[in-house]
Amino acid sequence: MSSVKACLNKKSGQLFSLSSTDQVHQALELMRSNRVRSVLVIDDGTLVGVVTQGDCAIKVLLPGLNARQTRLAEIMTPAPVTVAITDSLQFCMGIMTTRNIRHLPVLTKGKVVGMVSIGDIVRDIMSQQGDQIKQLETFIKGHGVA
Predict the structure, then answer these.
(1) Which residues contact 108 (CB under 8 A, 6 or more apart)?
(2) Can you say how many angstroms the Cα of residue 61 is from the centroid of all Cα atoms in its chain?
């Protein structure tokens, strides 16, 4: 399985973040317009939380709160689990499955440098399986020898 660094190199590098004092509707608009399912919550350059679509639905919509009046600080997952750029995607998958989370911020020297999602890991697995299938087909066909 690949490394977090290799995974991030395949992505756009764009991070989507707001501050803890921003409103939930801003997070939802940011997620919708960028087709992402989570937003980092960063205050003064420091990661303080993560907000997901699920957080917005379960903690705001279901209880009937107003997304324009609810601050991200009220619903975010504070002090989220993070990984390093040197970690493997297998390590990330282990964290995600044991903690039942889908997004992991990536930190280098205390600063956010990216985000790894469960979708990134699935894409990596599928790519590797495709490569293995090609290698097996080449082997079965006799390495191109007639």
Answers:
(1) 84, 85
(2) 23
DSSP 8-state secondary structure symbol assigned to residue 130: H
Q: Is CATH 3.40.710.10 the right assignment for the domain spanning 4-140? A: no
How confident is the model over 134-138, as a mean pLDDT?
73
Angle between helices 118-140 and 89-99 (to 10 degrees): 130
Radius of gyration of the chain (CA): 19
Tell me, what amino acid is at 96?
M
pLDDT confidence tier of residue 1, bands split at 50, 70 and 90 = low
Higher pLDDT, 98 or 140: 98
Note whether 106 and 89 are within 8 A (CB).
no
pLDDT tens readout for residues 8-35: 888 888 899 999 999 999 999 999 999 9
As given in the structure block, the two tokens for residue 46 are 């420091």
